[in-house]
Amino acid sequence: MKMASIPHPELLIVQVNETRIDAAGAINFKERMRELTQDNGKRVILDLSGVTFIDSSGLGAVVAVRKSLGPDRPLELAGLTSAVEKVFRLTRMDSVFPIHTCVPVGQSDGV
Prior knowledge:
By secondary structure, the protein is an alpha/beta fold. It has a single domain (about 5-100), classed as Transcription Regulator spoIIAA (2-Layer Sandwich). Helix content is about 30%, strand content about 25%. The protein has three helices and seven strands, in the order E-E-E-H-E-E-H-E-H-E. The chain has helices at about 25-35, 55-70, 80-90; strands spanning about 5, 10-15, 20, 45, 55, 75-80, 100. Strands 1-2-4-6-7 form a five-stranded mixed sheet. Strands 3-5 form a two-stranded parallel ribbon. A hairpin with a 3-residue loop joins strand 1 (about 5) and strand 2 (about 10-15).
């Protein structure tokens, strides 16, 4: 899965450069996230602005990544397209993940 990590002083942004996170790519997504985040103890923001489709397997993969980061390192989401946001809202995962309209770089309030 095509993904990029963009380190910043207070956080690590992981950008998904694919249009889909689905059953076909869920395992690859989790492995790639583990690679990109394992040596970085910073706050993680997952930039989903390029993702136009996510299914239940993709959603499960995002939840698995959140769990793997541990309780002291929450996974935040940013840039959800309307279709992806709808999935998070319908499954009530929008109450589990902090969701930002865009990647919050340089904000001093921690949001």
